Amino acid sequence: MADQTSGVKSADRVLAILDLVADRGPVRFTDVTSGLGLPRSSAHGLLATLAARNYLEFDEETRRYGLGLSAWRLSQAYSGHGDLERHARPLMEELATESGETVQLARLEGIHNVYIAIAHSPRPMKLVSHVGSRLHAHATGVGKMLLAGLSPEEARRRLTAAELPRLTDRTVTDVDELMDVLNSAREAGYAEDHEEYVEGCRCVAVPVLGPGGETVAAMSVSMPAFRCDDEQARAHLELLRATAVKLQRLTGG
């Protein structure tokens, strides 16, 4: 039993390292030990194994570990959102061109939203993000829309059990207040982020519904706050809603 428990702990640590690198990008050895609270000896062994199996790559010049080819190969085998992403991409590109802003599609993972497709703004100054980014859902427009798609009981359970960091002065971290925000988003059919995740960035988001009317993803238009007043946000919202409806028709929603 002791060996089995040790094996489970090692597996959990390996996955935690991969999550850390996926979230932060290339990391130093000290980022792993301090960020995950791992003993140096354990971290050395786990990192060496992951590098030997090509799940991580070690850069001798920067002394950092990044994701390797085996991690990429594993990600390519996942097909859970393949049809959704395939149908969404051309529609998102059209919306990015029409709105002039960045369009993102995300799904919910626990208390985080994970971006599965992105169409970047054609403008020089724009939101920079990448597929696979994992953000705190309570502070983003798509995240709040995804949380609003849960039952109120499940949303409260997840929010209460999680650490909700205050990322800007505008971030809402009180669970009761967040529940009010989610209820409003559920009733209105859209959610907003007013510089709650990053100062100077604003976004509007709508749900993407499945065949049974359930929320399977959320789509957003994100832009620098200085070029988005309330009137512009409403215009983006209408374009976003129309795009979500087109996507739902293609995917049977």
UniProtKB/TrEMBL annotation:
Start and end residues of each IclR-ED domain: 70-253
Keyword DNA-binding set for record: yes
Domain HTH iclR-type: 8-69
Biological process annotations from GO: negative regulation of DNA-templated transcription
SUPFAM superfamilies noted in UniProt: GAF domain-like, Winged helix' DNA-binding domain
Record flagged with keyword DNA-binding: yes
Residues annotated as signal peptide: none
Domain of life, source organism: Bacteria
GO MF, one example: DNA binding
This protein's name: IclR family transcriptional regulator
Species whose genome carries this gene: Streptomyces bathyalis
